[in-house]
Amino acid sequence: MPQNRKLAVEWFQKASFQGHAHARYFAQHLLSRGNFIGFRDEQEEAHVIAGKLRTGLLWEEPVGVLFHNSGERLAYIKNLRYRVDRYEAYQAWVLRRNEYDECTRLHRSSCSDPGPAPQ
Prior knowledge:
mainly alpha, 119 residues, 0% strand, 2 domains, single chain, 5 helices
């Protein structure tokens, strides 16, 4: 079944309103984690946490995506990590480029060219 955290929270909340204490716990647990998907194993957690993918998962949580196995889910996370790394590298380059442009505009001697934009 495709994952959908928002729908899961809604169903747990409905059950909690009917007096199911465990449902209230699970709804709160899912809400406390924001929009982040859970981890299936240590390898998956390492790719998300070590890769600082928390913000990437806010971009595109795999709502409605059906992973047939852990390998497919891990491949999705690795691809997302690659795209987030590229985006962050480009944003860092833009900052360095703007600093360089400002430095040269002010005719300073210590300007450091950031080189070409990352691909």
